[in-house]
Amino acid sequence: MNNEMIVLLQEEIQNKIGKKIKLGRDCTKLSQQISDSTGRAVSSTTLKRFFGIVETSFSPSKYTLESLAIFLGYEDWDDFQESAGENILHSEKDKIWESFKKPIQQVTENSMNSLKLKTNFDPQKFILRTNSRKKIEAFTKSSKTATMLVAHEGFGKSSTILQWVDNYLLSPHAGYENTVVLLIDGGTFFNLYAKYPQIDLLHDLVEFKLISSLRSLSEKHPELIKEPVWIIIDDVDEIFVENRQYHKFAENLMRLILTYSENKKTKVLLSCRPENMDGFASLARENPLFRSCWYDVDFSTDNMIQTQNIPEFSEDEIRSALKKINFSSSLKFLKVYHNDALDVLQHPNFLSILTEVYEEKKEISKIVILDRFVKNNLHSRPYRDEKVLVVEKFFELCNRAQKNTIVKKDQLPDKGRGQGYIELISHGLIYEYTRPNDEGIMANYVYVKFCQNLIFEFILIEQWLKDRILNFELIREIQAFYKDNDPLRCRLLLMLTNILLHDKDFDTIVRLHLEFEEIINPASKSMSQLPKCLVVIAVPIRKSMRYNKECREFLIPRLAKTRIGQILYFGLVFDIDSIMIGPGRILSAYNNRKPPVSTAFAHYMRFFQGFLSLNKEQCTKEYEKIQKTDWNNIHDPLISSYHYNVQIIYTCNFNGNSIHHLLPSIFAHADHLRNKKLQPPDALPEFELSIIHTLNLCEKYQEITELSNYVETHYDCSIAEGSPYYKYYRMCRARALLHEKHQKKAMEMFNSIVNLKFPDHMKHYMKINADLITVDFLLASNKNKEAKKLIKDIKHFASLLKFNFFIEKADKVLHEIS
What we know:
- It is a single chain.
- By secondary structure, the protein is mainly alpha-helical.
- The strands form two sheets. The protein has a five-stranded parallel β-sheet with strand order 2-3-4-1-5. It has a three-stranded antiparallel β-sheet with strand order 6-8-7.
- Helix 5 runs antiparallel to helix 7 (157-169), helix 22 runs parallel beside helix 24 and helix 37 (784-801) runs antiparallel to helix 38.
- The protein is globular.
């Protein structure tokens, strides 16, 4: 006799009568109920044996089982068994599903708590980034298996994931009730790995063996997987610092993603910093199938450190955040006069510091804000000594983070674990969590870690500067100390560069560049061939040119005379946004190199400066010099395009407007570059795209169409579909089609372009160009109100950057609308 059936029969009878059968009198009463209901006699003695009140070795008779089944409303015992069998099977599947879900839910809850501590999460201050939300929603609907949020520290990757999981995937009102969410905080991965050994997915990430319980479950019980299973790992680059282990981890992730690529119910969402994307990019380039699994992740660029698919806070987002703290000045004021301060505004707890510094009429900069934050939350009374003691002991225990950035709480001094310690946690400087010991065994150890890398790095620099002077020798000592921890070494060098810029210590910055120049390959010609740390520090130096006059006048001209400086601050990365803010000395220093490439570049940029300022005299002067340049010895596709760009701009604006005579020469040179293989057939053709941009400036739509057709015929740009340059080329092509009366095709092409974000050195200049194209499409769609609003934004930025050409262009469009 199936014992499970007997147990189920007992349960159903007790459920029907509404009480447990524990005593003899319960059986007597039940016997009477059965007789009244069915007319069949089942004695109280029989019921005592059936419910185990009286021990017996005999199984219940067929008559007894029949009677009890009829009492429950079934036709007979067989009818009950058939129905019960389905219930038992359903119950077993429920148990399987629950045994799969429960530990995963625990991991997710653990990671949620960890992320809330790390981000200092406050639902009243944090908003779900619009772009990130739209990206994840689109990914959810797509057929792709994986996507990644790629951005530098502070762009809201962790808070976006936290809010997406909390507000959507786990919300009872968002339509994801049956979704399984495995959320892993990369910073506490090994804590989770040791604590939940039954989750095979965690094992697959460390040592891939295709043993995943999810894979097994989906094969044996596909009917149980009713909704998508989300595997989310925040900060994958926090799991392994050592490169070899990190690349192995990336390989395991690749295998995991490929394993689930055919299962449309599984979604993998990761977050990562751009400087750690190389491992994934190399795997994507080697494995087209792996690359095809990804949604909106660009693996095509040679310089992955520039890959970022989470934009900076939009103006509306920053304006909203400033409004919440009653900031007394405007966002426009910050954008013009304190651009570097905006870098820290992605952290909500810096906003009040910004207000405080501004109201005291102190200098506003990234370093000033960080310094004030640390003073307010670390070097502040009444528990200053306790807090400083904790921090100093922390860095002593981890040897100034040479190999790790965590310490055991019980190693901190007893008197340092009082109210001051609690303040450090409540102010969002540090947080606690548990993790396994060195043997991988889960122990009752509590570990302490800093919440934000930005604050951690600033305070770490403070430790190095105690009783020391910041100079080149100290920087060299710091770099040597962290030689085996490349990510931290680069981040500290970035922080030191910001401090040097703030202190206007340009001599040390130049010495730092020259130090790198001694160790790089003499044949290096592009940023992708330079050390990662050097590329990182160039970003704040380029930005500082816009608001730091001394940087423009003294630092960049000196760097222009070095080989590394020429690669980092000129050519492809020349700061177009700052071209009107006095680049004279900069270009003169670069021009002193003498080779035709540097000469052509300097004259072209001066010509372009004259064009943007509507200075015909300057344009004519540089135009004549460019005509005398030896272009035959210039083989760089981009630089060679300048020869034709100058002629197009000068002809269209100052010399008759017709450029038809230039086209044969342009196409001939395009053929020359292609035949000489100076432009790979599976990459963006820099020569043609540069000229198409110039044709767009001059509104030469027929010529854009002709040159675009040439590009589409001879080049496969599919590998660079995520590139902002490719997306902008498509915008120019769409605009040309619109003006050539192919409105439907133009609209389709334009509407397919999303997430357009340009590099920092030309962000505003390219945005103005893209916005002017957008205005045309708004007007074509009869959205005049939106077009007027966008034109006002264009004029605002053009005025700030002194781009008279775009101001005039915007006024002309506005007049035509009116």
